[in-house]
Design goal:
- The longest helix is centred in the last third of the chain and has 23 residues.
- The protein is elongated and about 50 Å long.
- It folds into two domains: 54 residues, 434 Repressor (Amino-terminal Domain), CATH 1.10.260; 40 residues, no CATH class.
- By secondary structure, it is mostly helical.
Length: 118
């Protein structure tokens, strides 16, 4: 069983076509990273610490020894909760209608941003 970190935050996800991105962040080589992903059961402790530091999680989270910590839920005001419920209902719409709603939201937000910038 190969070691594959359980987390992949967008902030450290490598840009497309950049094999050297993660090794550079860890001070390692692409060959070593590939070894951890495909062959090694668990990377050496110093590498595990680097992974945990980079991904801002505990080693227990990376190794799957405990479930990842959930961010604390903030109290939502009733209006935010109502809007979130409506957004979830969008998933039941046909894809064409979903795209239309997204375009409408983008145009409203875009026009508001343009007005704020002026």
């Amino acid at each position: 069983m190969a070691f594959v970190p359980r987390t992949d935050p967008p902030s450290v996800r490598p840009p497309p076509g950049s094999d050297g991105y993660l090794p550079n962040l860890l001070g390692s080589t692409q060959r070593n990273i590939s070894h951890y992903e495909t062959v090694a059961e668990v990377p050496p402790t110093d590498v595990l610490v680097k992974f945990a530091t980079l991904f801002k999680v505990s080693a227990d989270d990376l190794l799957g020894l405990k479930p990842p910590a959930q961010p604390p839920r903030r109290k939502e005001d009733p209006e935010t909760k109502r809007l979130w419920t409506k957004f979830q209902q969008l998933l039941s719409l046909p894809e064409k209608d979903q795209r239309a709603v997204i375009r409408l939201i983008n145009s409203l937000v875009g026009s508001r941003d343009d007005a704020d910038a002026a």
